[in-house]
Design a protein that fits this description.
alpha/beta
Amino acid sequence: MTTRPLPMKVPAPGLPARVRIHEVGARDGLQNEKETVPTPVKAEFIRRLAVAGLTTIEATSFVHPKWVPQLADAEELFPLLGDIADVGDVSLPVLVPNERGLDRALALGARSIAVFGSATETFAARNLNRTVDESLAMFAPVVARAKAESVHVRGYLSMCFGDPWEGAVPVAQVVRVAKALMDLGCDELSLGDTIGVATPGHVTALLTALNDSAVPTESIGVHFHDTYGQALSNTLAALQHGVTTVDASAGGLGGCPYAKSATGNLATEDLVWMLDGLGIETGVDLDALTATSTWLAGHLGRPSPSRTVRALTPSPSSSPASHKE
């Protein structure tokens, strides 16, 4: 890893020694892009993320191409990632919505999958065209078959802190659906602040309620969007509770095609900067990661929204040669 003078490492008591970053940039980060990103660019993006030290990189989604056109190349992309194993012990999870998606993923050798549920009825109807309980019933055979194949299963749960149609989401309502996902056999649960309205106290209250319902902290990851600038403070609250898995998107890319108020994900670079300053190990080389996001921003034709990427990447106008009398 690159040695840099900043941020100065000042550990805080009560925090984990190491955090696993679940990198979602290649899937959640790109899925809302209007212009199609070429498959070789996606493959190179994932490869660069692995070289930067990320060990869990969500690669793509096996949804019907009609629903997420950006990820219609899943069958073409996934076979291009075989050499990722050469750069370290890297997991490449993929999203599967149903048994057909599972069939496609397993046929290509996927060893880690995720299902995507909702804590609210409106989002379940808009995203899955089902009620919450109908979606759980749809996931049951997917999870069962995956576990029978010794495939790791993550359960995503959206709208855990607020819903653009229903407003505030009661903690008990979230706990019911989260517990149901875990009872299906999911290995881990990712709590999604899909529209970015969570605050630290709310995060702590939900995590405590989940623990009280026998969902252990070690099985929980957090997935924050930065709509109101709260993603890092919410992450810190989760770390103080003992959470050691944090979702983030390189460059802060992302949104949600089914919830227009959902803005970008927590930027992986911003997360790594904070964790480095706290002395928490991630295994991620921040310089290499920043270079990767800058490279991708060039392909997307716009600068990265990550504050850390912008701070560490000199703009052309800031160079001495650009200041002419």
